């Protein structure tokens, strides 16, 4: 069984932030998590994403039978 315990390593000393299970002897695996600075997000290019409702009244329309079952799938229904 694996148990993960959070801790801080500083100046050669490991300090656990949670209680350690009461074991006489156990193998351990120590992973050092490097804190990385968040990467910059890409700037949004105007016109690259249509807002909801922008297409209303344009040439685009939804057919009346949009929610009807497809002929190809009738045998499964």
TrEMBL record:
It comes from the Bacteria. This is DUF2281 domain-containing protein.
């Amino acid at each position: 069984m694996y148990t993960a315990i959070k801790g801080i390593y500083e100046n050669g000393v490991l300090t656990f932030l949670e209680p350690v299970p009461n074991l006489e002897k156990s193998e351990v695996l120590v992973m050092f998590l490097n804190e990385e600075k968040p990467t910059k997000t890409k700037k949004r290019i105007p016109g690259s994403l249509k807002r909801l409702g922008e297409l209303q009244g344009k040439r685009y329309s939804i057919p009346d039978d949009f929610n009807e079952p497809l002929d190809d799938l009738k045998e499964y229904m």
